[in-house]
Amino acid sequence: xxxxxxxxxxxxxxxxxxxxxxxxxxxxxxxxxxxxxxxxxxxxxxxxxxxxxxxxxxxxxxxxxxxxxxxxxxxxxxxxxxxxxxxxxxxxxxx
Length: 95
Fold this sequence. Notes:
Elements: E1 7-9, E2 13-18, E3 21-26, E4 31-36, H1 37-45, H2 52-62, H3 67-83, E5 87-89, H4 90-93
Antiparallel strand pairs: 1-5, 2-3, 3-4
């Protein structure tokens, strides 16, 4: 994963946001993933077009914090999404 990486959500995933939290349901595996508000907001930014850098810039413009900390938090969350097969690299999808 790098600054120019682009991700897409898995096809069998539906996402809902409620009161500063979110849930994603994998309809294929029948697994419910619960997310806090920030994780849900990061997940919402994944659209198959935005790079990791653009997602970081979005959060830097919206929240107070230093670039290093915000970048680290986003990388950790994206890694978790990858680990649970909620997202994949866009390039992997088209190969």
